[in-house]
Amino acid sequence: MGEFEESVVISMNTIQFITGAIIIISGLIVEALAILGIYIFKFGLNRMHSAAIGDTLGMGLICFGICIISGFSVTTLKIMIVIFCFWLAGPVSSHLLARLEITTNRHIDEHAKQIDLRDKKQGDDYESI
Predict the structure, then answer these.
(1) What is the DSSP track for the chain?
(2) Of 8, 64, 81, 116, which has the fewest Cβ atoms less than 10 A away?
(3) Chain-centre distance of CA 97, in angstroms?
(4) Each residue of 31-83: pLDDT tens digit?
């Protein structure tokens, strides 16, 4: 290999590492904001929303950054499977916990409006509520 080819290989590895590091740092920032949201919000559903966003987006970015740094290999495939499992299980568990909160909280009307979409008629506009 000549000098030029070695410097190109080194710089591509450097670019790959920097890109992966930026994505991992972005995921860590999302996770930190989610943790902050859990402590700031007072109502359970708001806290749950903050945790779900942090779980889905933050962990996805962190795992994607690790995939970029490690390059395409069997490890990358395993990390992609982990991302898929996070994205499949996280929203489902958050939805189940939110439904539990709505059905068991007697004072839910003080914190949130409930709309029964089964009663929606043709032409009704719920965006103005």
Answers:
(1) --HHHHHHHHHHHHHHHHHHHHHHHHHHHHHHHHHHHHHH--SHHHHHHHHHHIIIIIHHHHHHHHHHHH-SSHHHHHHHHHHHHHHHHHHHHHHHHHHHHHHH-TTGGGT-----GGG--TT---TT-
(2) 116
(3) 17
(4) 999 999 999 988 888 888 888 888 889 988 998 999 899 888 888 888 889 88
Query: Six-digit token pair at 124?
Result: 């009704």
For residue 128, pLDDT beyond 60: no
What sign has the CA pseudo-torsion 71, 76, 79, 80?
positive
- The Cα–Cα gap between 15 and 9 comes to 10
Q: How many CB atoms lie within 10 A of CB 121?
A: 5
